[in-house]
Amino acid sequence: MGDPKKRRKSYQTPRKSFSKERIEKERETKKTYGLKNTRELYRADSIIRKKRKNARNLLALGLEQRLKREKELLDSLKNMGILRGNPTLEDVLTLTGEALLERRLQTIVWRKGLANTAKQARQFITHGHISINGEKVNKPGYLVTTEEEEKIAYHKQEMILEQKKVKATKEKESEKKELQEAFDEAKPTEIEDGE
């Protein structure tokens, strides 16, 4: 029996730990996509960084050697849904980590309207309410292929999405109006001080 494989980091951290602009940009991205922590963002950036590095290496090769590998790289990115149409290696060089974040199950569930927010989409997925092709998936970071995108649905029962805040405020406003009207009607008439 062999030893278990060593778990290695699947991401790289930035060279400068404290850069105000980068930290603010990361905060906005995490908020937009409902990420749990910055590691999820770093992981997406690392995957895209590797794809861009492969594209640069292919551009350095001769034409004959490049053709087969180029097709494999572009097909893998098209299947993931990151690139569309007839992409070239130059298109791969312009990719950012946000292109990969758009392909996460969490983001797609939110964009399709199965959840009101990205964080709610994450909660639905982790609680087992979302399935792909009838199979429950409980990983918000699952990268959805273009074939699987149409097969995303609620698992077994449909969730009822409500705009609770809007309803609650309208109900409170109507209650306030009713109370104010009742209070105005019940006001005692003022006694004239004639004497």
UniProtKB/TrEMBL annotation:
Domain of life, source organism: Archaea
Gene3D superfamilies to which the protein is assigned, alphabetical: RNA-binding S4 domain
Domain RNA-binding S4 as annotated: residue spans: 103-172
Comp. bias (Basic and acidic residues): 18-30
Gene Ontology BP annotations: ribosomal small subunit biogenesis; translation
Record CDD domains: S4
Keywords annotated in UniProt: Ribonucleoprotein, Ribosomal protein, RNA-binding, rRNA-binding
PROSITE patterns for the chain: S4 (PS50889)
Record GO terms (molecular function): rRNA binding; structural constituent of ribosome
Residues in Small ribosomal subunit protein uS4 N-terminal domain copies: 5-102
HAMAP family reported for this sequence: Ribosomal_uS4_A
Subunit structure: Part of the 30S ribosomal subunit. Contacts protein S5. The interaction surface between S4 and S5 is involved in control of translational fidelity.
UniProt record similarity statement: Belongs to the universal ribosomal protein uS4 family.
NCBIfam families: PRK04051.1, uS4_arch
Protein name: Small ribosomal subunit protein uS4
